[in-house]
Amino acid sequence: MAIVLDPNEPAINRGIKTVGIGKKGSKPLTPELALEIVDDLKSGKVSAAAKGAFFAGLHAKGIEPQEEILEQACPPDTIVSDAPEFVQWVCAQLLRGHTLDRQTAYDLGKFLFSDEPGDAARGWVASFLRVRYETDEEYEGLLQAMDDTLAPAFKIPAPKGAPIIQIAEPFDGVDHSYMITPLIGQKLQLQGYRVVHQVGRNSGPKLDMNLWDIAQALGTTPALSNLDLTMGKPNFGWFFHQTLMSRALDRWVDLRRQIIKRPFLATLERFINPLKADILIASAFHPPYGEKMMNLAQRAGFKGIIIVRNGIEGTIAFPLLRDVKLLLSAKQKDGSFRRHEMIKKNALVVDMEEMIEKPKASDNANLIETYLKAGASGNKRFDLRVKITGEGLNQALEWLKENP
């Protein structure tokens, strides 16, 4: 399939979207685009992070004859030359096709989330890992480094009380549907759980609205500390915002907008677990990520895990026109995990799935508030998704209870 690029975008952005897709999707640059990028590099129009991300994708793909002018303009050994020696070594290892063990990935993560110079190396690492897919060992080491960046207020042990469910929606949210997540949080809290939502600034590529935009439209405020759980339950649960939890992770939002393609952080940031929550509910739209996220959640310390596969993209909500697979995992007394797959068949009669052009957080909040007051929002598909998602997650939670 041909890659359709917006000619009004900066050349480096179009370059990243061409060579930085992945093992199967990356394509060669046209000679014209290669020349345009060279000109922008020479004139200083390309940020360090974007340069690193672009050249990582280019080298991972393999350089075509018409792309050699880029290698001449920016030799590989000059791209990350301002980074620490260890990081330069890691970049060279990635270029040679090596994977990183957990400790090396952790040490690399300490640099990635530091204030040290080397944004080109940060872009290089993020792009290279994405293109060739991260290993579980790399994910675990990076996640540990991310956890180290949490502010002291979010390292305090969680107050004792009911089991904690962490709902972790993708931070780039949705661009074709309304989110039901606050209502799911409210329903789970009525069943006796404490619900925490991981939220943050939207780094893209979808920029219409995310869960935090909707939470703000509902008038909620973010948690300031783990001790916020000593207070009464907020209606929809607590919202833990990345900006308050970790300045180092929040800085990456701006880097990711330059890197363009979603790096490892798009997956990992949802597994930060300051409260050591008992249960994680998250989503994985693309098939390979279901297993990846299950492994990550187990390594991150969650005792019960629910991964919604094949749901509405960008959310844990169930669709109305296709079956949903729930990937479940429960930690056993011996430390092992028992896994189970639950297929939720769809017997609902609707003519088409919801497709909203440019959804607005204010409209989404109005649906939620109307639903709370009247038991229905006035939007048939929205209400059906609340119903079937709530029922499906309840069945998954029952399985976790029965398989401790």
The helix count comes to 17
Using the CA coordinates, give the radius of gyration: 22 Å
The helix fraction, in percent, is: 40-55%
**Which geometry do the CA atoms define?**
globular
Strand content: 5-15%
Largest sheet: 7 strands, mixed
Number of strands: 7
Low-confidence stretches: none
Which secondary-structure class do the elements indicate?
alpha/beta
Question: What is the overall pLDDT average?
Answer: 93
As laid out across the biggest beta sheet, the strand order is 3-2-1-4-5-6-7
Q: Order of helices and strands, N to C?
A: HHHHHHHHHEHEHEHHHEHEEEHH
- CA distance, first residue to last residue: 47 Å
What's the layout of helices and strands?
Elements: H1 11-19, H2 31-42, H3 48-61, H4 68-73, H5 76-79, H6 85-95, H7 102-112, H8 119-132, H9 136-148, E1 164-168, H10 181-190, E2 194-199, H11 211-217, E3 238-241, H12 242-245, H13 247-259, H14 265-268, E4 279-284, H15 287-299, E5 304-309, E6 324-331, E7 337-344, H16 361-374, H17 380-402
Parallel strand pairs: 1-2, 1-4, 2-3, 4-5
Antiparallel strand pairs: 5-6, 6-7
Helix pairs in contact: 1-2, 1-3, 3-8, 3-13, 6-8, 7-9, 10-17, 11-16
Could you please describe the fold and organization of this structure?
Helix content is 45%, strand content 11%. With 404 residues, it is α/β, with parallel strands linked by helices. Strand 4, helix 15 and strand 5 (304-309) form a beta-alpha-beta unit. It has a 7-stranded mixed sheet, sandwiched between helices. The protein has helices at residues 11-19, 31-42, 48-61, 68-73, 76-79, 85-95, 102-112, 119-132, 136-148, 181-190, 211-217, 242-245, 247-259, 265-268, 287-299, 361-374, 380-402; strands at residues 164-168, 194-199, 238-241, 279-284, 304-309, 324-331, 337-344. It is built from 17 helices and 7 strands.
